[in-house]
């Protein structure tokens, strides 16, 4: 079975540009979360989506936005890119949102490596 | 908010020995804990999880121990193999209701010596 898939794997942008990252969850998983991982650090929570609705948001500026589609895939958008946005962006999926009724583990993709010049 | 920390950024062990990786968390309301393994160039890989109503859980060659009194959990890897070399993260979920993300520690880099 396919795991979480993310595209593209690598991306280079310049400051001020906008970027869209894509994620397809594990088949049957309805919740998708996004994380940012800076080199040498653990992943940091950005968003969680379930049934096309935002269920949670981390401490990130409004330049970051996301959405989830009827097929449960998701996009993360970042506007007005800054040098500090250079990171590995990870998508994770779970059957239901972690924390709802019964805890379900999140399974991660291999991420999109975003470099800002 | 939750603070999650690991005691050692790097742990070096001999192949075949047992490894113990530690993690501390700050929020007594945390109710779900996960250990992930991350190899270079890859995303975190789920290893094992434990809920707050348990204090021990075992998987294949791995055991997670949870001590809620001192807000500490550990990952034990038995008979460490070269393929166990990776960065290990603990992740914590608070029981604050709703659906929020996991809070990760900074990671421990496990190095296997031949």
Structure, described:
The complex is a heterodimer of chains A (117) and B (114). Chain A has 117 residues and is mainly β. Chain A is built from no helices and eleven strands. In chain A, strands 2, 4, 5, 6, 9, 10 and 11 form a seven-stranded mixed sheet that branches. In chain A, strand 4 (31-37) and strand 5 (44-50) form a beta hairpin. Chain A starts with a strand and ends with a strand. In chain A, 43% of the residues are buried. The mean pLDDT of chain A is 93. Chain B is mainly beta. Chain B is 0% helix and 55% strand. Chain B has strands at residues 4-6, 10-14, 19-25, 30-38, 45-51, 56-58, 62-67, 72-77, 86-94, 103-104, 108-113. In chain B, the strands form two sheets. In chain B, strands 2, 4, 5, 9, 10 and 11 form a six-stranded mixed sheet that branches. In chain B, a hairpin with a 4-residue loop joins strand 7 and strand 8. The termini of chain B are far apart. The chains are: A mainly beta (117), B mainly beta (114).
Would you summarize the structure shown here?
The complex is a heterodimer of chains A (117) and B (114). Chain A has 117 residues and is mainly β.
Entry keywords:
A: 117 residues, mainly beta, four-stranded antiparallel beta sheet, globular, B: 114 residues, five-stranded antiparallel beta sheet
SSE string of chain B, helices as H and strands as E: EEEEEEEEEEE
Helix content class of chain B: under 10%
Q: Report the portion of residues of chain A in β strands.
A: over 45%
Structural class of chain A: mainly beta
Number of helices of chain A: 0
Q: Write down the oligomeric state.
A: heterodimer
Q: With helices defined by DSSP (H or I, 4 residues minimum), what is the helix count of chain B?
A: 0
User: How would a textbook summarize the main sheet of chain B?
Assistant: 6 strands, mixed
Secondary structure class of chain B reads mainly beta
- Spatial gap, N to C terminus of chain A: 37 Å
**Largest interface, with Cβ-Cβ < 8 Å?**
A-B, 30 and 29 residues
What overall geometry of chain B do the principal axes of the alpha carbons give? globular
Unreliable parts of chain A: none
């Amino acid at each position: 079975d396919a795991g979480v898939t993310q595209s593209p794997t690598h991306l280079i942008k310049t400051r001020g540009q906008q970027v869209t990252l894509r994620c397809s969850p594990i088949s049957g998983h309805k919740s998708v979360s996004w994380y940012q991982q800076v080199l040498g650090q653990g992943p940091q929570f950005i968003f969680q989506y379930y049934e096309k609705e935002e269920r949670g948001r981390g401490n990130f500026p409004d330049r970051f936005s996301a959405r989830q589609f009827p097929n449960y895939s998701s996009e993360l958008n970042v506007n007005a890119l800054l040098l500090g946005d250079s990171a590995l962006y990870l998508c994770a999926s779970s059957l239901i949102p972690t924390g709802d009724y019964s805890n379900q583990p999140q399974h991660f993709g291999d991420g999109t490596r975003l470099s800002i010049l | 908010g939750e603070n999650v920390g690991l005691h050692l950024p790097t742990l070096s062990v001999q192949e075949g020995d047992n490894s113990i990786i530690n993690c501390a968390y700050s929020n007594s309301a945390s109710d779900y804990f996960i250990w992930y393994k991350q190899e270079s160039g890859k995303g975190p890989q789920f290893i094992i999880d434990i809920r707050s109503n348990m204090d021990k859980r075992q998987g294949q060659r791995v055991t997670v121990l949870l001590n809620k009194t001192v807000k500490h959990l550990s990952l034990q890897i038995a008979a460490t193999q070269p393929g166990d070399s990776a960065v290990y993260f603990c992740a914590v979920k608070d029981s604050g209701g709703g659906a929020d993300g996991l809070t990760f520690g900074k990671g421990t880099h496990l190095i296997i010596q031949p």
